[in-house]
Amino acid sequence: MTWARAMRAALLATAGQGQWWIAALAAFLVRGGLVALLPAIVLVPTPAELALHLGPSLTGDAPGDVTSVLVEIVLRLVVAATVILLVTTAIGVRIEGDLVAAAADEELEGSPGPLCLPLGRAIVARLVTHLPTLIVLVLGGVALTGVAYAELLSPSGSGSLAGRVVAGAPLAVIGIVVAWLVGETWGGLAVRRLAAGESLGGALARGLLGLVRPTGLATLALASLAVVVPAAALWLAASRAFDLLWPLVVDRADPWTVTIALLGLVVTWGAGLWLLGIGLAFRSAAWTAESLRQR
Questions:
Q1: Number of domains within the chain
Q2: pTM, entire model
Q3: How many CA atoms lie within 13 A of 169 on its CB side?
Protein backbone atom coordinates (compact mmCIF):
# COMPACT_ATOMS: atom_id res chain seq x y z
CA MET A 1 0.00 0.00 0.00
CA THR A 2 1.37 3.40 -0.97
CA TRP A 3 1.84 6.17 1.60
CA ALA A 4 -0.87 8.34 0.04
CA ARG A 5 -3.32 5.45 0.08
CA ALA A 6 -2.45 4.69 3.71
CA MET A 7 -3.08 8.30 4.77
CA ARG A 8 -6.36 8.33 2.87
CA ALA A 9 -7.39 5.13 4.66
CA ALA A 10 -6.47 6.74 7.99
CA LEU A 11 -8.58 9.78 7.16
CA LEU A 12 -11.56 7.66 6.15
CA ALA A 13 -11.16 5.53 9.27
CA THR A 14 -11.29 8.66 11.42
CA ALA A 15 -14.34 10.23 9.76
CA GLY A 16 -17.54 9.71 11.72
CA GLN A 17 -15.81 7.87 14.56
CA GLY A 18 -16.88 10.09 17.44
CA GLN A 19 -15.71 7.59 20.04
CA TRP A 20 -12.22 7.71 18.51
CA TRP A 21 -12.18 11.50 18.77
CA ILE A 22 -13.08 11.37 22.45
CA ALA A 23 -10.59 8.60 23.20
CA ALA A 24 -7.75 10.33 21.34
CA LEU A 25 -8.50 13.63 23.07
CA ALA A 26 -8.63 11.92 26.47
CA ALA A 27 -5.28 10.20 25.88
CA PHE A 28 -3.74 13.51 24.82
CA LEU A 29 -5.08 15.49 27.79
CA VAL A 30 -4.07 13.00 30.47
CA ARG A 31 -0.56 12.61 29.03
CA GLY A 32 0.24 16.30 29.36
CA GLY A 33 -1.93 18.05 26.79
CA LEU A 34 -4.00 19.70 29.50
CA VAL A 35 -0.87 21.31 30.93
CA ALA A 36 -0.09 22.78 27.50
CA LEU A 37 -3.60 24.21 27.05
CA LEU A 38 -4.39 25.54 30.52
CA PRO A 39 -1.95 28.51 30.48
CA ALA A 40 -4.31 30.18 28.00
CA ILE A 41 -6.94 30.56 30.75
CA VAL A 42 -4.89 30.51 33.97
CA LEU A 43 -3.73 33.57 35.90
CA VAL A 44 -0.15 33.28 37.14
CA PRO A 45 0.57 34.90 40.53
CA THR A 46 3.02 37.78 40.61
CA PRO A 47 6.26 37.65 42.64
CA ALA A 48 4.68 39.97 45.23
CA GLU A 49 1.70 37.62 45.63
CA LEU A 50 3.98 34.60 45.96
CA ALA A 51 6.08 36.35 48.58
CA LEU A 52 2.96 37.38 50.50
CA HIS A 53 1.51 33.87 50.61
CA LEU A 54 4.69 31.82 50.98
CA GLY A 55 6.54 34.11 53.34
CA PRO A 56 10.22 34.07 54.33
CA SER A 57 10.11 30.43 55.44
CA LEU A 58 11.05 29.37 51.93
CA THR A 59 13.88 31.82 51.29
CA GLY A 60 15.45 32.24 54.71
CA ASP A 61 16.84 35.41 56.21
CA ALA A 62 19.33 36.19 53.45
CA PRO A 63 19.10 36.00 49.64
CA GLY A 64 20.13 32.60 48.36
CA ASP A 65 19.47 30.77 51.63
CA VAL A 66 18.04 27.29 51.19
CA THR A 67 15.72 26.32 54.03
CA SER A 68 14.61 22.85 55.06
CA VAL A 69 11.05 23.81 54.17
CA LEU A 70 12.08 24.66 50.62
CA VAL A 71 13.97 21.38 50.24
CA GLU A 72 10.99 19.44 51.54
CA ILE A 73 8.62 21.18 49.13
CA VAL A 74 10.93 20.51 46.16
CA LEU A 75 11.25 16.84 47.08
CA ARG A 76 7.49 16.48 47.46
CA LEU A 77 6.95 18.15 44.11
CA VAL A 78 9.43 15.81 42.42
CA VAL A 79 7.80 12.73 43.95
CA ALA A 80 4.31 13.97 43.09
CA ALA A 81 5.34 14.81 39.52
CA THR A 82 6.88 11.35 39.08
CA VAL A 83 3.76 9.59 40.35
CA ILE A 84 1.49 11.76 38.20
CA LEU A 85 3.68 11.11 35.15
CA LEU A 86 3.53 7.35 35.61
CA VAL A 87 -0.20 7.27 36.27
CA THR A 88 -1.15 9.57 33.40
CA THR A 89 1.18 7.76 31.00
CA ALA A 90 -0.40 4.44 31.96
CA ILE A 91 -3.91 5.81 31.40
CA GLY A 92 -2.95 7.41 28.09
CA VAL A 93 -1.21 4.26 26.83
CA ARG A 94 -4.20 2.13 27.83
CA ILE A 95 -6.54 4.34 25.80
CA GLU A 96 -4.06 4.42 22.93
CA GLY A 97 -3.97 0.63 22.86
CA ASP A 98 -7.72 0.54 22.25
CA LEU A 99 -7.36 3.07 19.42
CA VAL A 100 -4.57 1.08 17.78
CA ALA A 101 -6.58 -2.14 17.88
CA ALA A 102 -9.73 -0.45 16.61
CA ALA A 103 -7.95 1.24 13.69
CA ALA A 104 -6.12 -1.92 12.64
CA ASP A 105 -9.19 -4.16 12.92
CA GLU A 106 -11.82 -2.00 11.24
CA GLU A 107 -10.44 0.07 8.41
CA LEU A 108 -6.72 -0.18 7.78
CA GLU A 109 -5.10 -2.80 5.60
CA GLY A 110 -2.00 -4.81 6.37
CA SER A 111 -2.76 -5.81 9.95
CA PRO A 112 -0.94 -9.03 10.91
CA GLY A 113 -3.85 -10.02 13.16
CA PRO A 114 -5.39 -8.82 16.42
CA LEU A 115 -3.11 -6.29 18.11
CA CYS A 116 -2.59 -6.49 21.87
CA LEU A 117 -0.55 -3.78 23.57
CA PRO A 118 1.64 -4.85 26.54
CA LEU A 119 0.96 -2.03 28.99
CA GLY A 120 4.19 -2.15 30.99
CA ARG A 121 6.54 -2.11 28.00
CA ALA A 122 4.40 0.50 26.27
CA ILE A 123 4.73 2.82 29.27
CA VAL A 124 8.52 2.37 29.21
CA ALA A 125 8.58 3.04 25.47
CA ARG A 126 6.58 6.24 25.86
CA LEU A 127 8.86 7.51 28.62
CA VAL A 128 12.09 6.61 26.77
CA THR A 129 11.01 8.28 23.54
CA HIS A 130 10.34 11.53 25.43
CA LEU A 131 13.76 11.75 27.06
CA PRO A 132 14.94 14.13 24.29
CA THR A 133 11.77 16.14 24.90
CA LEU A 134 12.69 16.43 28.59
CA ILE A 135 16.15 17.74 27.73
CA VAL A 136 14.76 20.36 25.34
CA LEU A 137 12.06 21.25 27.87
CA VAL A 138 14.62 21.95 30.57
CA LEU A 139 16.75 24.08 28.25
CA GLY A 140 13.77 25.93 26.83
CA GLY A 141 12.25 26.31 30.29
CA VAL A 142 15.27 28.35 31.40
CA ALA A 143 14.64 30.87 28.62
CA LEU A 144 10.88 30.93 29.23
CA THR A 145 11.36 31.42 32.97
CA GLY A 146 13.59 34.42 32.34
CA VAL A 147 11.04 35.99 30.02
CA ALA A 148 8.19 35.24 32.43
CA TYR A 149 10.04 36.85 35.34
CA ALA A 150 10.74 39.96 33.25
CA GLU A 151 7.09 40.15 32.18
CA LEU A 152 5.90 39.87 35.78
CA LEU A 153 8.18 42.71 36.86
CA SER A 154 7.57 44.91 33.82
CA PRO A 155 4.77 43.82 31.46
CA SER A 156 5.46 44.55 27.81
CA GLY A 157 1.79 44.62 26.83
CA SER A 158 -1.80 44.14 27.93
CA GLY A 159 -2.36 40.62 26.60
CA SER A 160 -2.23 37.39 28.60
CA LEU A 161 1.01 36.59 30.41
CA ALA A 162 1.33 33.25 28.59
CA GLY A 163 1.01 34.95 25.22
CA ARG A 164 3.63 37.55 26.09
CA VAL A 165 6.03 34.87 27.31
CA VAL A 166 5.61 32.87 24.10
CA ALA A 167 6.21 36.02 22.03
CA GLY A 168 9.31 36.80 24.08
CA ALA A 169 10.96 33.39 23.55
CA PRO A 170 9.58 31.96 20.30
CA LEU A 171 12.59 29.73 19.54
CA ALA A 172 12.29 28.02 22.92
CA VAL A 173 8.60 27.35 22.34
CA ILE A 174 9.23 26.06 18.80
CA GLY A 175 12.01 23.80 20.05
CA ILE A 176 9.81 22.32 22.78
CA VAL A 177 6.90 21.77 20.39
CA VAL A 178 9.09 20.13 17.73
CA ALA A 179 10.80 17.89 20.30
CA TRP A 180 7.42 16.87 21.73
CA LEU A 181 5.99 16.07 18.28
CA VAL A 182 9.04 13.98 17.37
CA GLY A 183 8.85 12.15 20.70
CA GLU A 184 5.14 11.52 20.20
CA THR A 185 5.72 10.10 16.72
CA TRP A 186 8.65 7.92 17.77
CA GLY A 187 6.68 6.67 20.74
CA GLY A 188 3.58 6.10 18.62
CA LEU A 189 5.47 3.96 16.12
CA ALA A 190 7.25 2.04 18.90
CA VAL A 191 3.99 1.35 20.74
CA ARG A 192 2.41 -0.02 17.58
CA ARG A 193 5.34 -2.36 17.02
CA LEU A 194 4.99 -3.56 20.59
CA ALA A 195 1.32 -4.26 19.90
CA ALA A 196 2.38 -6.38 16.93
CA GLY A 197 4.57 -8.55 19.19
CA GLU A 198 8.05 -7.02 18.88
CA SER A 199 10.45 -6.69 21.83
CA LEU A 200 10.91 -3.37 23.62
CA GLY A 201 14.40 -2.75 22.21
CA GLY A 202 13.37 -3.77 18.71
CA ALA A 203 10.26 -1.63 18.84
CA LEU A 204 12.23 1.44 19.94
CA ALA A 205 14.95 0.90 17.33
CA ARG A 206 12.60 0.16 14.45
CA GLY A 207 10.27 2.94 15.54
CA LEU A 208 13.15 5.42 15.31
CA LEU A 209 14.22 4.03 11.93
CA GLY A 210 10.63 4.25 10.74
CA LEU A 211 10.47 7.87 11.85
CA VAL A 212 13.52 8.97 9.85
CA ARG A 213 12.34 7.26 6.65
CA PRO A 214 10.92 9.66 4.03
CA THR A 215 7.40 8.34 4.53
CA GLY A 216 7.89 8.48 8.30
CA LEU A 217 8.89 12.13 8.12
CA ALA A 218 5.95 12.80 5.82
CA THR A 219 3.62 11.14 8.34
CA LEU A 220 5.19 13.22 11.12
CA ALA A 221 4.57 16.43 9.16
CA LEU A 222 1.00 15.59 8.18
CA ALA A 223 -0.05 14.23 11.57
CA SER A 224 1.60 17.12 13.40
CA LEU A 225 -0.19 19.62 11.18
CA ALA A 226 -3.50 17.95 12.01
CA VAL A 227 -2.80 18.52 15.72
CA VAL A 228 -0.86 21.78 15.85
CA VAL A 229 -3.35 23.83 13.80
CA PRO A 230 -6.44 23.11 15.97
CA ALA A 231 -4.36 23.25 19.17
CA ALA A 232 -2.95 26.67 18.26
CA ALA A 233 -6.39 27.93 17.23
CA LEU A 234 -7.85 26.68 20.52
CA TRP A 235 -5.05 28.25 22.53
CA LEU A 236 -5.34 31.65 20.85
CA ALA A 237 -9.15 31.75 20.81
CA ALA A 238 -9.50 30.60 24.42
CA SER A 239 -6.86 33.07 25.54
CA ARG A 240 -8.69 35.90 23.82
CA ALA A 241 -12.05 34.84 25.24
CA PHE A 242 -10.56 34.68 28.74
CA ASP A 243 -9.00 38.13 28.34
CA LEU A 244 -12.47 39.48 27.54
CA LEU A 245 -14.14 37.63 30.43
CA TRP A 246 -11.78 38.22 33.33
CA PRO A 247 -11.96 42.07 33.47
CA LEU A 248 -15.75 41.79 33.51
CA VAL A 249 -15.57 39.44 36.49
CA VAL A 250 -13.09 41.64 38.37
CA ASP A 251 -15.11 44.82 37.72
CA ARG A 252 -18.37 43.05 38.63
CA ALA A 253 -20.01 43.93 35.36
CA ASP A 254 -23.65 43.31 34.52
CA PRO A 255 -24.47 39.60 35.11
CA TRP A 256 -25.86 39.19 31.60
CA THR A 257 -22.65 40.58 30.10
CA VAL A 258 -20.57 38.23 32.23
CA THR A 259 -22.79 35.29 31.28
CA ILE A 260 -22.45 36.02 27.57
CA ALA A 261 -18.67 36.31 27.90
CA LEU A 262 -18.56 33.07 29.90
CA LEU A 263 -20.64 31.27 27.28
CA GLY A 264 -18.27 32.58 24.64
CA LEU A 265 -15.33 31.04 26.51
CA VAL A 266 -17.13 27.71 26.99
CA VAL A 267 -18.20 27.50 23.34
CA THR A 268 -14.72 28.44 22.16
CA TRP A 269 -13.14 25.84 24.42
CA GLY A 270 -15.62 23.12 23.44
CA ALA A 271 -15.32 23.76 19.70
CA GLY A 272 -11.53 23.82 19.93
CA LEU A 273 -11.42 20.53 21.83
CA TRP A 274 -13.77 18.95 19.29
CA LEU A 275 -11.52 19.91 16.37
CA LEU A 276 -8.44 18.88 18.32
CA GLY A 277 -9.98 15.47 19.06
CA ILE A 278 -10.55 14.88 15.35
CA GLY A 279 -6.95 15.83 14.56
CA LEU A 280 -5.62 13.57 17.31
CA ALA A 281 -7.74 10.63 16.13
CA PHE A 282 -6.40 11.08 12.60
CA ARG A 283 -2.86 11.25 13.95
CA SER A 284 -3.34 7.96 15.79
CA ALA A 285 -4.80 6.28 12.69
CA ALA A 286 -1.99 7.70 10.53
CA TRP A 287 0.66 6.26 12.87
CA THR A 288 -1.07 2.88 12.73
CA ALA A 289 -1.28 2.97 8.94
CA GLU A 290 2.37 3.92 8.57
CA SER A 291 3.47 1.28 11.06
CA LEU A 292 1.57 -1.40 9.12
CA ARG A 293 3.11 -0.17 5.87
CA GLN A 294 6.63 -0.52 7.26
CA ARG A 295 6.22 -4.15 8.33
A1: 1
A2: 0.76
A3: 22
